[in-house]
Design goal:
- The chain is mostly helical.
- It contains 5 helices and no strands.
- It has helices at 11-20, 23-46, 55-62, 66-72, 82-91.
- The protein is elongated.
Length: 95
């Protein structure tokens, strides 16, 4: 008789699962994950071997300043606008 898959659980994952059951924590966690992923993706695209752009080069292509690019590449910065993200996407010529 097979008991099914056995998953290792750590105290950390159990604690996170409990915290995620709270709506306020879940919302903050999700927003933090999205901000972090966007920041890292923008930087990773900029530093790809086919580009190797500086923040200044990306800023010029996106019609903004280097300081804006620096802020949106910082996962702790939480005030990026959708318009700025769209302009960065256009600078990368992404579909």
């Amino acid at each position: 008789m097979d008991a099914g898959p056995v998953y290792a659980t750590s105290p950390w994952s159990k604690q996170l699962a409990e915290q995620l059951s709270e709506k306020e924590f879940r919302n903050e966690y999700m927003m933090d994950q999205v901000r972090t992923n966007i920041a890292f993706q923008i930087r990773a695209l900029r530093e790809q071997p086919c580009r190797e752009w500086t923040q200044t080069e990306l800023a010029e292509r996106a019609g903004t300043t280097q300081s804006v690019i620096s802020r949106i590449e910082n996962p702790d910065y939480g005030s990026m606008t959708l318009q700025t993200l769209l302009e960065v996407a256009c600078a990368y010529d992404l579909p």
